[in-house]
Amino acid sequence: MSNLDRAPVPSVCGGRGFVVAEPVRELLSPRHVQLGESTEVRRLLPNLGRRMIGAWAFVDHYGPDDIADEPGMQVPPHPHIGLQTVSWLHQGEVLHRDSTGSLQTIRPRELGLMTSGRAISHSEESPRPHARYLHGAQLWVALPDSHRHTDPRFEHHPDLPTVTAPGLTATVILGSLDGATSPGTTFTPIVGADLTLAQGADLRLPLDPDFEYGVLAMSGEVHVDGVPVLPGSMLYLGCGRTELPLRAESDAAIMLLGGEPFEEELIMWWNFVGRTQEDIERAREDWMSGTRFGEVNGYDGAPLPAPELPPVPLKPRGRVR
Question: What's the CATH superfamily of 23-259?
Answer without folding.
Answer: Jelly Rolls (2.60.120.10)
